[in-house]
Design a protein that fits this description.
mainly alpha; globular
């Protein structure tokens, strides 16, 4: 298959890239505002917890960003001196530097009369890393912050304007990161498998339907046992970390950073499904969702059975009762996505293979090709291979995301 240049990065993509960077900055400001509100209201513990979640998520994201800069090909590293780049990451500004760097390159590509394929591919490379870092930030910071916000609102029976803004920005970042990540994976495929509006909506809805009930039951459990939820998180996180380690991930460049990646994925798995290994996903998915369903049910039952009869949160009983149907709806949407909207299904309809079974080989699912292997984002390529179950022969033709010009950086 002949190599094909990436689609042109236009003004709309540039605007979306700027909006994505602005949303990330707004989310940080909203979290700081919420924490300040807790402190003013006489709840320093909640303020400290909110800031600790923000700091931990930022530190993990900055560490990944710095490690990726160090392992990237020399031609793709920023022109900044190494010490200055390290200082930016120590100041927790590495992610925003990536966003500004990508915007600068995107502006150049957008308004150039004839942008080179190399520039397009460099932009795609940076876009994929930003997409992955945004996903990490979402599940390390936004979902825990959502849990804390709901806990405080239910505990105090009132919602401050800062909390409303925090919830809105958190949901905005969750939505943006999920769709951006979805598009980044799809950008490895040939044009006929690129992202459609229908697949985006279903992909977002099944993730939302599975994540929201989880956040709700964890919040309710925390209402009764604020310290118990910390023990619960630690135990589930350890189980997920062990499970990810047994799957033999190979995302980072060396064993040490790989442990950081596995720790981050374990946090993601506490809230939502995330595929990290090649091979059959069906059985792993059944095990995971079965575990989360049982665990969430036990958390909900603990709240229902142990709450005081005089508890003023009785109005939440119908909401809790709807959590299980919501989760089952999410599973149904996920099955529908893989049945009708997943690229591998479309390839199968054209005479290829069963997406769930990675042991079957075919050339039905076509991936984009690139002339310069150094411009391939190996990290996102690795995830795309597992997401779409790439056959052996097709693995040689993956592109770092020629279509990533359509991604919101």
């Amino acid at each position: 298959m002949a190599a094909r240049g990436p689609p042109r990065f236009g003004p709309l993509q540039l605007l979306l890239a700027a909006a994505g960077a602005a949303a990330a900055a707004l989310d940080v400001c909203a979290d700081a505002w919420v924490a300040a509100g807790y402190a003013r209201a006489g709840h320093p513990g909640w303020a400290a917890l909110g800031l600790a979640l923000l700091a931990a998520a930022s530190a993990a994201t900055q560490a990944c960003s710095w490690l990726w800069f160090r392992s990237d090909p020399a031609a793709l590293r920023p022109e900044l001196p190494r010490c200055l780049l390290a200082a930016l990451h120590l100041l927790q500004l590495g992610f925003f530097y990536r966003c500004l760097h990508a915007l600068k390159l995107g502006w150049k590509v957008c308004w150039a009369k004839a942008a080179s394929e190399e520039e397009q591919n460099r932009l795609a490379f940076f876009s994929h890393d930003i997409s992955m870092l945004r996903l990490f930030e979402t599940f390390l910071e936004n979902t825990p912050q959502l849990t804390l916000l709901l806990y405080v609102i239910l505990r105090t029976n009132k919602a401050e304007p800062s909390q409303g803004l925090g919830i809105c920005t958190a949901f905005l970042c969750v939505t943006w990161s999920l769709l951006d990540y979805h598009q980044s994976l799809r950008s490895f495929l040939q044009d006929k498998y690129e992202l459609s509006l229908g697949s985006s909506v279903v992909y977002f809805l099944w993730n939302l339907s599975l994540t929201c009930p989880r956040i709700l039951v964890v919040t309710l459990f925390a209402l009764l046992w604020p310290y118990g939820v910390a023990i619960h998180f630690l135990l589930v996180w350890l189980a997920m970390f062990l499970w990810v380690s047994l799957q033999g991930t190979d995302f980072m460049e060396s064993p040490g950073p790989e442990q950081l990646y596995r720790a981050i994925v374990a946090v993601i798995l506490y809230f939502s499904w995330f595929n990290v290994a090649p091979g059959r996903t069906l059985y792993r998915s059944i095990i995971y969702h079965g575990f989360i369903l049982v665990d969430s049910t036990l958390l909900a039952l603990s709240w229902l059975l142990c709450r005081s009869p005089l508890d003023e949160h009785f109005y939440l009983i119908p909401v809790v009762s709807a959590a299980l149907p919501c989760y089952l709806l999410g599973l149904l949407l996920r099955v529908s996505y893989y049945k009708w909207l997943h690229p591998s299904t479309r390839a199968q309809q054209q005479g290829s293979y069963d997406e769930v079974d990675a042991n079957r080989r075919t050339d039905g699912l076509e991936f984009q090709t690139v002339l310069e292997p150094d411009l391939v984002n190996r990290r996102m390529q690795w995830l795309a291979q597992h997401q779409f179950v790439v056959p052996v022969l097709a693995e040689q033709h993956l592109l770092n995301g020629a279509a990533a010009a359509d991604v919101a950086v």
